[in-house]
Amino acid sequence: MPWVYLLLAGLLEICWAFAMKASYGFSRPLPTVVMLVCMVASFGLLSVAMRTLPLGTAYAIWTGIGAVGAFLVGILLLGESASPLRLLAAGLIVAGLALMKVSSAA
């Protein structure tokens, strides 16, 4: 179950990053509120996952899900560049996350 909590925490990190961008420097109330709610929920789920998972593993995977997810949201929804080097970099992050998962004892 801690891996499920960690995955949900990572997905919420993507949501709050996107909402932060949509808040336009916290000048738009609705995206700002969405960002804060998602942020609190993400940190809460990360905290629950860390009861069982090692700190380094949980934090690295949480940030990795958020980073790669935000990268994909940027490409798919915001028209950001999908250059080969950027895609390779994201692929390396995903490979690192997979190695972190398989090397974890929990």
TrEMBL record:
UniProt keyword Chaperone present: no
Keywords: Cell membrane, Membrane, Transmembrane, Transmembrane helix, Transport
Pfam families, per database record: Multi_Drug_Res
Cellular compartments per GO CC: plasma membrane
Listed InterPro entries: EmrE-like (IPR037185), Small_drug/metabolite_transptr (IPR000390), Small_multidrug_res (IPR045324)
GO BP term, example: xenobiotic detoxification by transmembrane export across the plasma membrane
Topology with respect to the bilayer: Multi-pass membrane protein
Family: Belongs to the drug/metabolite transporter (DMT) superfamily. Small multidrug resistance (SMR) (TC 2.A.7.1) family. Gdx/SugE subfamily.
Protein's UniProt name: Guanidinium exporter
Species annotation: Mangrovicoccus algicola
